[in-house]
DNA sequence: ATAATAGTGTCTGTGAGACATTATACC
DNA sequence: GGTATAATGTCTCACAGACACTATTAT
């Protein structure tokens, strides 16, 4: 056997949220070399006695002051030989979906933290291979909205159907029919549970409040209208 | 910053195939400590100048003599602090789907290699956390058959619809209606492409041969009949 | 002809997309 | 009443499931 080559292992976080109808990601400005001053995904080294998911939660808190609510899952690992100029680093990327956040606080290793619209990220060159990781995270989120109730992770504990629809529209960047959406969501068992209360709003009829249901997957997915696949010739009157 | 704790990084492989109508996995018998003599997933240490996917391909060849055809994708990473008694090891698990294989050859580090039916694996206690990794790989494969044409990875380059259906039935462990399946597969653009030739068989009408199409995802998934989700009350005449 | 496997056709209920109307609040 | 937002209803087509028949080979 070839022995045990030395590696460092990090976790990086794709933290997504919806703000003002736009899908956004949390970025930090690097305070140290390499890529000092560049924007990057939050993350850091895994500690010797720490599991990967625990490291992700810890780094999220340390670098941004966010207590992990919402959803956190492993995304993928990235370990190209020279992705970090210092040494051989394998990073285990995680995907976090959170309700709209208070402005993040720059942590120990970060010179700053900011929530940036996905559409605006391409203007910034992210450090390392973080552009690729971010793209993978966004695609994962978009895909998972189709067949899981994960969009609820972007919402506060109690939410309206219109708010949930706004999440889909923001993540997919597409308008959805409010009536069909309402029928689909309320008609899918386990997707949402009615709270019984209604919102108090400025204008218009108050909306019913819901909380998340017990389902973890959606039989009969919600399909993105203009999906990348071959068009099936469905009617478009 | 806390410095760079030393880790070892390995790749492990969940190699699935369909043999005699049963979903099977490739296991190796460990020839070295720890867990010497126990069955495990094939895998090994990532080399200093090697990307993760490259390591997976290399280990597959080294430990089993299999040249990677078919499909290979990253599954997930596992890094609990004491999952390997020797040292801190993070493993990046990969999922490989292959057509039925010639009997594997035990490689350098393995005392033996064997293709085992998934249903029979629970009788063997696998080394490390490999039972969990295997379960995750099987579930990934089962789920992906629904919304990708990945079942074709289990087939030789040219195959019949009945053979493809046998793959679904083996992986899901469920019978499928041959007529509805044929209609679905041939009616989904990009799923399969007709070769034009027909099989030469012992008995019965010869079957048309197909090869894989260009599609990578299936709009309108093939749903597992008795899925885990909430029943929708669909008619069952 | 018989057996065996391959492939096509029909019926029906459910679900999704397109679209209009009613309901409930505030001004 | 006017305005704004929430929620429900209707129609139609497509697709999936249940099911029966025809087609093509070998014996």
Descriptive notes:
The structure is a homodimer of 237-residue chains. By secondary structure, chain A is α+β, with helices and mostly antiparallel strands. The first copy, chain A, contains five helices and nine strands; from the N terminus they run E-E-E-E-H-E-E-E-H-H-H-H-E-E. In chain A, strands 1, 2, 3, 4, 5, 6 and 7 form a seven-stranded mixed β-sheet that branches. In chain A, a hairpin with a 2-residue loop joins strand 1 (8-19) and strand 2. Chain A is elongated. At the A-B interface, strand 5 of A face strand 5 of B. Chain A binds a DNA duplex (27 and 27 nucleotides) through residues 160-162, 177-180, 182-184, 186-187, 198, 201-208, 220, 223, 225, 232-237.
Give me a quick take on this structure.
Two copies of one chain form a homodimer. By secondary structure, chain A is of the alpha+beta class.
List keywords for this structure.
9 strands, alpha+beta, DNA-binding, disordered C terminus, elongated, 24% helix, seven-stranded mixed sheet, homodimer, 237 residues
Write the layout of secondary structure elements.
The structure is a homodimer of 237-residue chains.
Chain A: E1 8-19, E2 22-30, E3 39-40, E4 43-45, H1 52-64, E5 71-78, E6 89-98, E7 110-117, H2 118-121, H3 130-147, H4 161-172, H5 178-187, E8 192-198, E9 208-212
Parallel strand pairs in A: 1-6
Antiparallel strand pairs in A: 1-2, 1-4, 2-3, 2-7, 5-6, 8-9
The structure holds a DNA duplex (27 and 27 nucleotides).
Major sheet description of chain A: 7 strands, mixed
Q: Low-confidence parts of chain A lasting 5 or more residues at pLDDT below 50? A: 228-237
Q: Count helical runs of chain A.
A: 5
Summing up helix and strand content along with how strands pair, one would put the structural category of chain A as: alpha+beta
- Please give the share of residues in helix of chain A: 10-25%
- The number of E-state strands of chain A comes to 9
Helix/strand order of chain A:
EEEEHEEEHHHHEE
State the shape of chain A.
elongated
- The overall pLDDT of chain A, averaged over residues, is 89
